[in-house]
Amino acid sequence: MSDPLGPFAGAASVAVVLGSGLAGLCDGARIAYRVPYRDLPPLLEPAVEGHPGFLALADFGGRPALLFAGRSHLYEGQDPARVTAAVSLAADLGCTELVLTNAAGSLTAGIRPGAWLLPEDVIAFPARRISRFASAGRLSGGARLSPLIAPRLRESLRRAAREAGTAVEDGVLAWMSGPCFETAAEARAAAAAGAHAATMSVYPELVAARFRGIDAAVLSLITNDTAGVSRGSIDHADVMKRGAEGGRRLAAIIGRLLASRGDA
Ligand code: HPA
Q: Between 84 and which of 133, 207, 208, 253 could a Cys-Cys bridge form, CB atoms 3.0 to 4.6 Å apart?
């Protein structure tokens, strides 16, 4: 049988991981090849709705990118090395830059659902999960993680968003282990610690990218208020609905980012 990864090897220098509901970005690109994660061990088939689970070689106006449509989360109980397998695969396939996208809940009244956050850093809660993650496989403990988000790629994303007509907010992400949304007290604690939005993804992949020596940055779509900001209930359906709108904007931003890389 032919190698399903053959068409992807060396085909792009930028990879994008699409978070909850954001796979709609694929509609804004021409997809040349696409392979389900189930045919690409060690990638895990995502268990959460809104994460389709395929790898695509996409073309944005003549410029290529690898799209990982859907991800797994540590709360799904899998080996951390497998949860971050897309990062290793992107590096193995020759990508040097990784854009991680995700859904996040606002921790502050100043950042509203529908906004985009361009995080400068991450605070990870709680420590139990971090140590479990850090002790897994190749990800040994004791390494210096800062800067976790690559400043140059982050600035390129800021410029791409501006050119695409999308405002982005600066801020810090709080990584929550999930799978339940945080309590109001946890949300207030995270905000008091300096975070602006909460997510259950991205942090493990950022750590993995750091270990693999590839640049990674994050673009977070604020899909809801956390319980620290509003009393209304949070629902995964709200996250998905915002994600569908966000996917279209994301396609424009990634298109601009790739154009800037082509000129470099
Ligand atoms: N909290 C944590 N993770 C999330 C949220 C949230 O409110 N929304 C989307 N992912």
A: 208
Cβ of 226 less than 6 Å from ligand 1: yes
Residue 125: phi and psi, rounded to 5, are: -120, 145
Whether 1 is covered by a domain: the verdict is: no
- 22 CB near ligand 1 (under 6 Å): no
Containing structural domain, residue 123: 6-261
- Among 93, 84, 98, 89, smallest CA distance to 7 is for 93
**CATH value at residue 111:** 3.40.50.1580
Q: Are strands 168-175 and 116-124 parallel, antiparallel or unpaired?
A: parallel
The reported pTM is: 0.93
Domain total of the chain = 1
Ligand 1 atom nearest 182 alpha carbon: 1
pLDDT digit string (tens) for 157-188?
999 999 999 999 999 999 998 888 999 999 99
Residue with CA closest to ligand 1 atom 6:
105
Tokens 């792009």 -> residue:
12
44, part of any domain = yes
* Residue 175 Cβ contacting ligand 1 at under 6 Å: no
Q: Which atom of ligand 1 is the closest one to the Cα of 199?
A: 3
Residue 253 lies in a domain: yes
* Ligand 1 pocket, residue 199 CB under 6 Å: yes
Q: If DSSP codes are grouped into helix, strand and coil, which group holds residue 153?
A: helix
Domain-located, residue 77: yes
How do residues 16-71 score in pLDDT, each as one tens digit?
Answer: 999 888 888 888 789 999 999 999 998 998 887 777 899 999 999 899 999 999 99
